[in-house]
Specification:
alpha/beta, 3 domains, 4-stranded antiparallel beta sheet, 16 helices
Length: 485
Protein backbone atom coordinates (compact mmCIF):
# COMPACT_ATOMS: atom_id res chain seq x y z
CA UNK A 1 0.00 0.00 0.00
CA UNK A 2 1.29 3.44 -0.92
CA UNK A 3 1.66 5.99 1.87
CA UNK A 4 -0.96 8.70 1.37
CA UNK A 5 -0.77 12.23 2.75
CA UNK A 6 -3.66 14.68 2.71
CA UNK A 7 -4.24 18.28 3.71
CA UNK A 8 -6.30 18.34 6.89
CA UNK A 9 -8.50 21.45 7.06
CA UNK A 10 -8.57 21.14 10.84
CA UNK A 11 -4.79 21.28 11.36
CA UNK A 12 -4.12 23.24 8.16
CA UNK A 13 -1.28 20.84 7.40
CA UNK A 14 -0.54 18.04 4.98
CA UNK A 15 -0.47 14.96 7.20
CA UNK A 16 0.05 11.23 6.71
CA UNK A 17 -3.37 9.66 6.30
CA UNK A 18 -3.68 6.89 8.88
CA UNK A 19 -7.11 5.29 9.18
CA UNK A 20 -8.17 3.83 12.50
CA UNK A 21 -8.10 0.32 11.07
CA UNK A 22 -5.15 -0.20 8.70
CA UNK A 23 -6.38 -0.98 5.21
CA UNK A 24 -9.93 0.32 5.82
CA UNK A 25 -11.27 3.83 5.25
CA UNK A 26 -14.42 5.28 6.81
CA UNK A 27 -15.25 8.15 4.47
CA UNK A 28 -18.25 10.47 4.50
CA UNK A 29 -18.83 13.13 1.84
CA UNK A 30 -21.73 15.57 1.81
CA UNK A 31 -23.93 14.99 -1.20
CA UNK A 32 -26.56 17.31 -2.66
CA UNK A 33 -29.85 18.90 -1.70
CA UNK A 34 -32.24 17.72 -4.37
CA UNK A 35 -34.23 20.78 -5.43
CA UNK A 36 -32.53 21.49 -8.78
CA UNK A 37 -30.13 20.01 -11.34
CA UNK A 38 -26.50 19.85 -10.28
CA UNK A 39 -24.09 22.47 -11.60
CA UNK A 40 -20.38 22.28 -12.39
CA UNK A 41 -19.45 23.28 -8.86
CA UNK A 42 -21.04 20.00 -7.74
CA UNK A 43 -19.26 18.23 -10.59
CA UNK A 44 -15.86 19.31 -9.35
CA UNK A 45 -16.51 18.24 -5.77
CA UNK A 46 -17.79 14.84 -6.84
CA UNK A 47 -14.79 14.33 -9.15
CA UNK A 48 -12.33 15.23 -6.38
CA UNK A 49 -13.75 12.69 -3.96
CA UNK A 50 -14.25 10.14 -6.72
CA UNK A 51 -10.52 10.42 -7.46
CA UNK A 52 -9.73 9.99 -3.77
CA UNK A 53 -12.07 6.99 -3.64
CA UNK A 54 -10.30 5.48 -6.66
CA UNK A 55 -6.89 6.14 -5.09
CA UNK A 56 -7.88 4.34 -1.91
CA UNK A 57 -9.12 1.36 -3.96
CA UNK A 58 -5.96 1.33 -6.09
CA UNK A 59 -3.79 1.24 -2.97
CA UNK A 60 -5.67 -1.78 -1.66
CA UNK A 61 -7.97 -0.18 0.90
CA UNK A 62 -11.47 -1.34 1.73
CA UNK A 63 -13.52 1.85 1.46
CA UNK A 64 -16.67 2.35 3.52
CA UNK A 65 -17.85 5.35 1.54
CA UNK A 66 -21.08 7.12 2.50
CA UNK A 67 -22.53 10.05 0.55
CA UNK A 68 -25.88 11.45 1.66
CA UNK A 69 -28.84 12.92 -0.18
CA UNK A 70 -30.71 15.77 1.53
CA UNK A 71 -34.35 15.28 0.57
CA UNK A 72 -36.01 17.52 3.17
CA UNK A 73 -34.97 21.17 3.34
CA UNK A 74 -36.30 24.72 3.12
CA UNK A 75 -35.27 25.03 -0.54
CA UNK A 76 -37.09 21.82 -1.46
CA UNK A 77 -40.24 22.98 0.31
CA UNK A 78 -40.08 26.35 -1.45
CA UNK A 79 -39.60 24.70 -4.86
CA UNK A 80 -42.54 22.37 -4.31
CA UNK A 81 -44.76 25.22 -3.12
CA UNK A 82 -43.90 27.38 -6.13
CA UNK A 83 -44.53 24.48 -8.51
CA UNK A 84 -47.74 23.43 -6.72
CA UNK A 85 -46.61 19.79 -6.48
CA UNK A 86 -45.88 17.40 -3.59
CA UNK A 87 -42.38 17.50 -2.14
CA UNK A 88 -41.63 13.92 -3.17
CA UNK A 89 -42.33 14.89 -6.79
CA UNK A 90 -39.50 17.42 -6.59
CA UNK A 91 -37.10 15.10 -4.81
CA UNK A 92 -37.75 12.16 -7.16
CA UNK A 93 -37.10 14.37 -10.18
CA UNK A 94 -33.80 15.72 -8.93
CA UNK A 95 -32.56 12.49 -7.37
CA UNK A 96 -32.96 10.93 -10.82
CA UNK A 97 -31.17 13.93 -12.32
CA UNK A 98 -28.32 13.57 -9.81
CA UNK A 99 -27.81 9.89 -10.56
CA UNK A 100 -27.88 10.60 -14.29
CA UNK A 101 -25.21 13.27 -13.89
CA UNK A 102 -23.02 11.02 -11.75
CA UNK A 103 -23.25 8.31 -14.40
CA UNK A 104 -22.35 10.73 -17.17
CA UNK A 105 -19.25 11.81 -15.27
CA UNK A 106 -18.14 8.26 -14.50
CA UNK A 107 -18.38 8.72 -10.73
CA UNK A 108 -18.04 5.44 -8.82
CA UNK A 109 -20.99 4.71 -6.55
CA UNK A 110 -20.43 4.95 -2.80
CA UNK A 111 -21.11 1.97 -0.57
CA UNK A 112 -24.11 3.72 0.99
CA UNK A 113 -26.20 6.64 -0.25
CA UNK A 114 -28.77 7.38 2.48
CA UNK A 115 -31.60 9.86 2.16
CA UNK A 116 -32.34 12.13 5.10
CA UNK A 117 -36.00 11.15 5.33
CA UNK A 118 -34.97 7.52 5.89
CA UNK A 119 -33.12 8.45 9.11
CA UNK A 120 -35.60 10.60 11.00
CA UNK A 121 -35.62 8.18 13.96
CA UNK A 122 -31.82 8.39 14.20
CA UNK A 123 -32.00 12.20 14.13
CA UNK A 124 -34.63 12.28 16.88
CA UNK A 125 -32.53 9.94 19.03
CA UNK A 126 -29.42 12.08 18.51
CA UNK A 127 -31.31 15.26 19.46
CA UNK A 128 -32.62 13.57 22.60
CA UNK A 129 -29.04 12.72 23.62
CA UNK A 130 -28.01 16.35 23.14
CA UNK A 131 -30.99 17.56 25.17
CA UNK A 132 -30.19 15.12 27.97
CA UNK A 133 -26.57 16.26 28.06
CA UNK A 134 -27.41 19.96 28.19
CA UNK A 135 -25.93 20.70 24.75
CA UNK A 136 -29.38 21.42 23.33
CA UNK A 137 -32.52 23.16 24.54
CA UNK A 138 -36.12 23.67 23.51
CA UNK A 139 -37.41 27.09 22.56
CA UNK A 140 -41.02 27.25 21.48
CA UNK A 141 -41.50 24.33 19.11
CA UNK A 142 -37.85 24.34 18.02
CA UNK A 143 -34.76 22.66 19.43
CA UNK A 144 -31.39 24.44 19.27
CA UNK A 145 -27.79 23.45 19.84
CA UNK A 146 -26.16 25.50 22.60
CA UNK A 147 -22.90 26.59 20.92
CA UNK A 148 -21.29 27.87 24.14
CA UNK A 149 -21.59 24.37 25.59
CA UNK A 150 -18.99 23.14 23.08
CA UNK A 151 -15.62 24.63 23.95
CA UNK A 152 -14.01 23.73 20.64
CA UNK A 153 -16.51 25.58 18.46
CA UNK A 154 -14.76 27.40 15.63
CA UNK A 155 -11.76 25.07 15.71
CA UNK A 156 -12.44 23.53 12.31
CA UNK A 157 -13.10 26.77 10.43
CA UNK A 158 -10.43 28.59 12.50
CA UNK A 159 -12.76 31.30 13.66
CA UNK A 160 -12.78 32.93 17.09
CA UNK A 161 -16.07 32.59 18.94
CA UNK A 162 -16.08 36.23 20.05
CA UNK A 163 -15.62 37.36 16.45
CA UNK A 164 -18.48 35.17 15.30
CA UNK A 165 -20.74 36.50 18.03
CA UNK A 166 -20.03 40.11 17.15
CA UNK A 167 -21.57 39.65 13.70
CA UNK A 168 -24.43 37.36 14.68
CA UNK A 169 -28.02 38.32 15.45
CA UNK A 170 -31.27 36.62 16.29
CA UNK A 171 -33.75 36.70 13.44
CA UNK A 172 -37.39 37.71 14.02
CA UNK A 173 -39.42 34.73 15.23
CA UNK A 174 -36.42 32.91 16.69
CA UNK A 175 -36.39 32.22 20.42
CA UNK A 176 -32.84 30.96 20.82
CA UNK A 177 -30.61 31.92 23.72
CA UNK A 178 -27.65 33.06 21.64
CA UNK A 179 -27.33 34.31 18.05
CA UNK A 180 -24.82 31.54 17.24
CA UNK A 181 -27.06 28.69 18.39
CA UNK A 182 -28.30 26.65 15.45
CA UNK A 183 -31.48 24.71 14.93
CA UNK A 184 -31.60 20.94 15.36
CA UNK A 185 -35.36 20.55 14.98
CA UNK A 186 -37.82 22.98 13.43
CA UNK A 187 -41.28 22.98 14.96
CA UNK A 188 -44.18 22.17 12.68
CA UNK A 189 -45.56 25.03 10.58
CA UNK A 190 -48.76 25.13 8.48
CA UNK A 191 -48.23 23.90 4.95
CA UNK A 192 -44.88 22.26 5.71
CA UNK A 193 -44.14 18.56 6.22
CA UNK A 194 -43.72 17.46 9.80
CA UNK A 195 -42.84 14.30 11.65
CA UNK A 196 -43.57 13.16 15.22
CA UNK A 197 -40.94 13.56 17.93
CA UNK A 198 -40.90 13.53 21.77
CA UNK A 199 -40.07 17.24 21.73
CA UNK A 200 -42.92 18.08 19.36
CA UNK A 201 -43.80 17.53 15.70
CA UNK A 202 -41.55 19.17 13.11
CA UNK A 203 -38.66 18.40 10.83
CA UNK A 204 -34.88 18.19 11.21
CA UNK A 205 -32.41 21.00 10.63
CA UNK A 206 -29.84 20.49 7.89
CA UNK A 207 -26.79 19.90 10.08
CA UNK A 208 -28.26 17.14 12.24
CA UNK A 209 -29.08 15.10 9.14
CA UNK A 210 -25.45 14.45 8.19
CA UNK A 211 -24.41 13.68 11.76
CA UNK A 212 -27.15 11.08 12.18
CA UNK A 213 -26.42 9.33 8.87
CA UNK A 214 -22.64 9.27 9.27
CA UNK A 215 -22.83 8.05 12.90
CA UNK A 216 -25.29 5.33 11.87
CA UNK A 217 -23.09 3.87 9.13
CA UNK A 218 -19.55 4.70 10.22
CA UNK A 219 -19.65 5.01 14.00
CA UNK A 220 -18.53 7.90 16.24
CA UNK A 221 -15.27 8.62 14.44
CA UNK A 222 -14.76 8.98 10.70
CA UNK A 223 -11.38 8.60 9.06
CA UNK A 224 -12.25 11.32 6.57
CA UNK A 225 -15.05 13.83 6.11
CA UNK A 226 -15.16 15.75 2.84
CA UNK A 227 -17.07 18.34 0.90
CA UNK A 228 -16.80 21.67 -0.86
CA UNK A 229 -15.10 24.65 0.76
CA UNK A 230 -18.50 26.34 1.07
CA UNK A 231 -19.53 23.66 3.59
CA UNK A 232 -16.64 24.31 5.97
CA UNK A 233 -18.68 26.89 7.87
CA UNK A 234 -21.26 26.63 9.19
CA UNK A 235 -22.28 23.14 8.07
CA UNK A 236 -19.18 21.13 8.93
CA UNK A 237 -18.42 23.23 12.00
CA UNK A 238 -21.91 22.52 13.30
CA UNK A 239 -21.74 18.85 12.37
CA UNK A 240 -18.53 18.49 14.32
CA UNK A 241 -19.88 20.32 17.38
CA UNK A 242 -23.11 18.36 17.71
CA UNK A 243 -21.51 14.98 16.94
CA UNK A 244 -18.68 15.38 19.43
CA UNK A 245 -21.06 16.75 22.06
CA UNK A 246 -23.21 13.65 21.66
CA UNK A 247 -20.46 11.03 21.58
CA UNK A 248 -17.53 12.57 23.44
CA UNK A 249 -15.30 11.36 20.62
CA UNK A 250 -13.38 13.03 17.79
CA UNK A 251 -15.86 13.19 14.93
CA UNK A 252 -13.42 13.15 11.99
CA UNK A 253 -9.68 12.55 11.97
CA UNK A 254 -9.21 14.28 8.61
CA UNK A 255 -11.32 17.05 7.08
CA UNK A 256 -10.92 17.62 3.36
CA UNK A 257 -12.39 20.45 1.29
CA UNK A 258 -12.16 21.25 -2.41
CA UNK A 259 -11.90 24.76 -3.83
CA UNK A 260 -14.59 26.67 -5.66
CA UNK A 261 -15.44 26.68 -9.35
CA UNK A 262 -15.65 30.27 -10.54
CA UNK A 263 -16.86 32.09 -13.62
CA UNK A 264 -15.06 35.37 -14.29
CA UNK A 265 -13.38 34.89 -10.90
CA UNK A 266 -16.76 34.78 -9.11
CA UNK A 267 -17.92 31.69 -7.23
CA UNK A 268 -20.37 29.56 -9.19
CA UNK A 269 -23.57 29.13 -7.19
CA UNK A 270 -27.29 28.90 -7.74
CA UNK A 271 -27.90 31.91 -5.50
CA UNK A 272 -25.72 34.11 -7.76
CA UNK A 273 -27.41 32.84 -10.90
CA UNK A 274 -24.12 32.13 -12.67
CA UNK A 275 -24.26 28.35 -12.73
CA UNK A 276 -23.79 26.02 -15.65
CA UNK A 277 -25.53 22.72 -15.18
CA UNK A 278 -23.84 19.37 -15.70
CA UNK A 279 -26.75 18.25 -17.86
CA UNK A 280 -26.42 21.26 -20.14
CA UNK A 281 -22.66 20.78 -20.48
CA UNK A 282 -23.12 17.22 -21.72
CA UNK A 283 -26.10 17.99 -23.92
CA UNK A 284 -24.39 20.99 -25.56
CA UNK A 285 -21.05 19.23 -26.03
CA UNK A 286 -20.06 18.58 -29.66
CA UNK A 287 -18.56 15.26 -28.60
CA UNK A 288 -20.02 11.87 -27.60
CA UNK A 289 -20.73 11.32 -23.91
CA UNK A 290 -17.59 9.27 -23.18
CA UNK A 291 -15.40 11.94 -24.79
CA UNK A 292 -17.21 14.72 -22.93
CA UNK A 293 -16.79 12.84 -19.66
CA UNK A 294 -13.01 12.64 -20.03
CA UNK A 295 -12.87 16.23 -21.26
CA UNK A 296 -14.63 17.56 -18.16
CA UNK A 297 -12.62 15.33 -15.82
CA UNK A 298 -9.34 16.43 -17.38
CA UNK A 299 -10.32 20.09 -17.10
CA UNK A 300 -10.96 19.83 -13.35
CA UNK A 301 -8.07 17.45 -12.60
CA UNK A 302 -5.67 19.88 -14.25
CA UNK A 303 -5.99 22.16 -11.19
CA UNK A 304 -5.10 21.05 -7.66
CA UNK A 305 -8.28 20.27 -5.77
CA UNK A 306 -7.67 22.89 -3.06
CA UNK A 307 -7.27 25.74 -5.55
CA UNK A 308 -10.13 27.57 -7.24
CA UNK A 309 -10.61 26.88 -10.93
CA UNK A 310 -12.09 29.41 -13.34
CA UNK A 311 -14.41 27.82 -15.88
CA UNK A 312 -13.52 29.37 -19.24
CA UNK A 313 -13.68 28.43 -22.90
CA UNK A 314 -9.93 28.84 -23.14
CA UNK A 315 -9.34 26.47 -20.25
CA UNK A 316 -11.67 23.91 -21.78
CA UNK A 317 -9.91 24.16 -25.15
CA UNK A 318 -6.50 23.67 -23.53
CA UNK A 319 -7.78 20.65 -21.65
CA UNK A 320 -9.19 19.13 -24.82
CA UNK A 321 -5.97 19.65 -26.76
CA UNK A 322 -3.88 18.09 -24.00
CA UNK A 323 -6.22 15.13 -23.72
CA UNK A 324 -6.23 14.68 -27.50
CA UNK A 325 -2.44 14.37 -27.43
CA UNK A 326 -2.61 11.62 -24.82
CA UNK A 327 -5.28 9.75 -26.77
CA UNK A 328 -3.30 10.00 -30.00
CA UNK A 329 -0.27 8.54 -28.25
CA UNK A 330 -2.36 5.81 -26.64
CA UNK A 331 -3.94 4.84 -29.96
CA UNK A 332 -0.56 4.44 -31.63
CA UNK A 333 0.82 2.58 -28.62
CA UNK A 334 -2.07 0.14 -28.47
CA UNK A 335 -1.73 -0.48 -32.17
CA UNK A 336 2.03 -1.08 -31.84
CA UNK A 337 1.51 -3.50 -28.92
CA UNK A 338 -1.62 -5.11 -30.34
CA UNK A 339 -0.11 -8.59 -30.29
CA UNK A 340 1.08 -8.42 -26.68
CA UNK A 341 -1.02 -9.33 -23.67
CA UNK A 342 -1.62 -6.29 -21.40
CA UNK A 343 -1.59 -8.66 -18.44
CA UNK A 344 2.15 -9.00 -18.95
CA UNK A 345 2.71 -5.24 -18.54
CA UNK A 346 4.98 -4.17 -15.67
CA UNK A 347 3.37 -3.56 -12.30
CA UNK A 348 6.26 -1.38 -11.15
CA UNK A 349 8.54 1.13 -12.81
CA UNK A 350 9.65 4.73 -12.50
CA UNK A 351 6.67 6.09 -14.43
CA UNK A 352 4.12 4.16 -12.40
CA UNK A 353 5.88 5.10 -9.17
CA UNK A 354 6.00 8.81 -10.06
CA UNK A 355 2.32 8.80 -10.97
CA UNK A 356 1.25 7.16 -7.71
CA UNK A 357 3.57 9.35 -5.66
CA UNK A 358 1.86 12.42 -7.14
CA UNK A 359 -1.62 11.20 -6.29
CA UNK A 360 -0.51 10.09 -2.84
CA UNK A 361 0.94 13.55 -2.11
CA UNK A 362 -2.34 15.33 -1.28
CA UNK A 363 -4.01 14.19 -4.49
CA UNK A 364 -1.73 16.21 -6.75
CA UNK A 365 -3.51 15.50 -10.00
CA UNK A 366 -1.67 18.21 -12.02
CA UNK A 367 1.65 16.47 -11.32
CA UNK A 368 0.09 13.08 -12.12
CA UNK A 369 -1.04 14.47 -15.47
CA UNK A 370 2.46 15.80 -16.12
CA UNK A 371 3.76 12.25 -15.65
CA UNK A 372 1.37 11.10 -18.38
CA UNK A 373 2.54 13.84 -20.73
CA UNK A 374 6.17 13.13 -19.92
CA UNK A 375 5.67 9.50 -20.88
CA UNK A 376 3.90 10.60 -24.08
CA UNK A 377 6.78 12.89 -25.05
CA UNK A 378 9.33 10.14 -24.51
CA UNK A 379 7.51 7.41 -26.41
CA UNK A 380 6.09 9.49 -29.29
CA UNK A 381 9.29 9.70 -31.41
CA UNK A 382 9.68 5.94 -31.25
CA UNK A 383 6.03 5.44 -32.22
CA UNK A 384 6.37 7.96 -35.04
CA UNK A 385 9.35 6.02 -36.39
CA UNK A 386 7.23 2.89 -36.64
CA UNK A 387 9.03 1.29 -33.71
CA UNK A 388 12.50 1.54 -35.23
CA UNK A 389 15.35 0.97 -32.82
CA UNK A 390 15.16 0.70 -29.05
CA UNK A 391 12.39 2.66 -27.34
CA UNK A 392 13.54 5.29 -24.80
CA UNK A 393 11.06 3.88 -22.28
CA UNK A 394 9.40 0.50 -22.02
CA UNK A 395 6.23 0.85 -24.14
CA UNK A 396 4.52 -1.76 -22.00
CA UNK A 397 5.07 0.39 -18.93
CA UNK A 398 3.54 3.37 -20.75
CA UNK A 399 0.53 1.20 -21.59
CA UNK A 400 0.32 0.19 -17.94
CA UNK A 401 0.56 3.85 -16.95
CA UNK A 402 -2.34 4.77 -19.23
CA UNK A 403 -4.39 1.94 -17.72
CA UNK A 404 -3.53 3.20 -14.24
CA UNK A 405 -4.76 6.67 -15.25
CA UNK A 406 -8.03 5.06 -16.29
CA UNK A 407 -8.51 3.39 -12.92
CA UNK A 408 -7.54 6.39 -10.80
CA UNK A 409 -8.45 9.46 -12.85
CA UNK A 410 -11.14 8.07 -15.11
CA UNK A 411 -9.15 9.15 -18.18
CA UNK A 412 -7.94 7.31 -21.30
CA UNK A 413 -10.75 4.79 -21.13
CA UNK A 414 -12.53 5.62 -24.39
CA UNK A 415 -11.62 3.18 -27.19
CA UNK A 416 -9.31 4.86 -29.73
CA UNK A 417 -11.71 4.45 -32.64
CA UNK A 418 -14.57 5.94 -30.63
CA UNK A 419 -12.43 8.85 -29.54
CA UNK A 420 -11.35 9.80 -33.05
CA UNK A 421 -14.73 9.03 -34.59
CA UNK A 422 -16.45 11.32 -32.10
CA UNK A 423 -14.21 14.24 -32.85
CA UNK A 424 -12.10 13.45 -29.83
CA UNK A 425 -8.76 13.90 -31.52
CA UNK A 426 -9.57 17.43 -32.48
CA UNK A 427 -12.70 19.37 -33.35
CA UNK A 428 -13.51 17.01 -36.18
CA UNK A 429 -13.97 19.93 -38.57
CA UNK A 430 -12.17 18.14 -41.39
CA UNK A 431 -13.09 14.63 -40.29
CA UNK A 432 -12.45 11.51 -42.28
CA UNK A 433 -13.57 13.22 -45.49
CA UNK A 434 -10.11 14.61 -46.12
CA UNK A 435 -9.45 14.22 -49.82
CA UNK A 436 -6.72 11.84 -50.96
CA UNK A 437 -4.89 14.72 -52.64
CA UNK A 438 -4.84 16.66 -49.37
CA UNK A 439 -3.62 13.60 -47.46
CA UNK A 440 -0.80 13.14 -49.98
CA UNK A 441 0.13 16.81 -49.67
CA UNK A 442 0.28 16.71 -45.85
CA UNK A 443 2.27 13.48 -45.89
CA UNK A 444 4.73 15.00 -48.34
CA UNK A 445 5.12 18.14 -46.22
CA UNK A 446 5.71 16.00 -43.17
CA UNK A 447 8.40 13.99 -44.92
CA UNK A 448 10.11 17.21 -45.97
CA UNK A 449 9.96 18.50 -42.40
CA UNK A 450 11.48 15.29 -41.08
CA UNK A 451 14.33 15.43 -43.60
CA UNK A 452 14.97 19.04 -42.52
CA UNK A 453 14.93 17.80 -38.90
CA UNK A 454 12.03 20.13 -38.15
CA UNK A 455 10.44 17.59 -35.86
CA UNK A 456 8.06 20.07 -34.28
CA UNK A 457 6.48 20.77 -37.68
CA UNK A 458 6.54 17.08 -38.55
CA UNK A 459 4.69 16.22 -35.34
CA UNK A 460 2.14 18.97 -35.96
CA UNK A 461 1.41 17.62 -39.46
CA UNK A 462 1.17 14.07 -38.14
CA UNK A 463 -1.29 15.26 -35.45
CA UNK A 464 -3.35 17.10 -38.07
CA UNK A 465 -3.64 13.92 -40.07
CA UNK A 466 -4.43 11.96 -36.96
CA UNK A 467 -7.25 14.41 -36.12
CA UNK A 468 -8.71 13.64 -39.55
CA UNK A 469 -8.62 9.90 -38.91
CA UNK A 470 -5.37 9.24 -40.76
CA UNK A 471 -2.62 7.30 -38.97
CA UNK A 472 0.91 7.33 -40.37
CA UNK A 473 3.02 4.28 -39.60
CA UNK A 474 6.64 5.12 -40.36
CA UNK A 475 8.62 2.35 -42.02
CA UNK A 476 12.41 1.98 -41.73
CA UNK A 477 14.03 3.42 -44.84
CA UNK A 478 10.80 4.08 -46.73
CA UNK A 479 7.63 6.12 -46.99
CA UNK A 480 5.12 5.84 -44.16
CA UNK A 481 2.21 3.46 -44.41
CA UNK A 482 -1.11 5.35 -44.43
CA UNK A 483 -4.03 3.89 -42.51
CA UNK A 484 -7.53 5.35 -42.08
CA UNK A 485 -9.31 4.70 -38.78
Amino acid sequence: MSSISLYNSFSRKVEPFRPQTPGEVKMYVCGVTVYDDCHLGHARSQMVFDTLHRLFLETGHVVHYVRNITDIDDKIIKKATEAGVPIDSITRTYIDSFFRDMGRMGILSPAKEPRATEFLASMVELIERLLAGGSAYRAGGDVYFRVKSFSGYGGLSHQVLDDLQSGARIEPGEEKEDPLDFVLWKGAKPGEPSYPAPFGPGRPGWHIECSAMSLHYLGPTLDLHGGGMDLLFPHHENERAQSEAATGRTFARTWMHNGFVTTSQEKMSKSLGNTRRIRAFFEESPFPETVTREWLRYFFLGTHYRSPVDFTDGGLASAKNALDGLHQCRALLLDRLSGEDPESDPRTGSLLLSFMEALSADLDTPVALSVLHGAKSRINPWLASGGAGSPPVDPREVRALFSLAGRTLGLLTTPPAAWVGGGGAGTGSRGSELASEEVDRLVRLREEARKARDFKQADALRDELRAAGIVLEDQPGGSPRIRRI
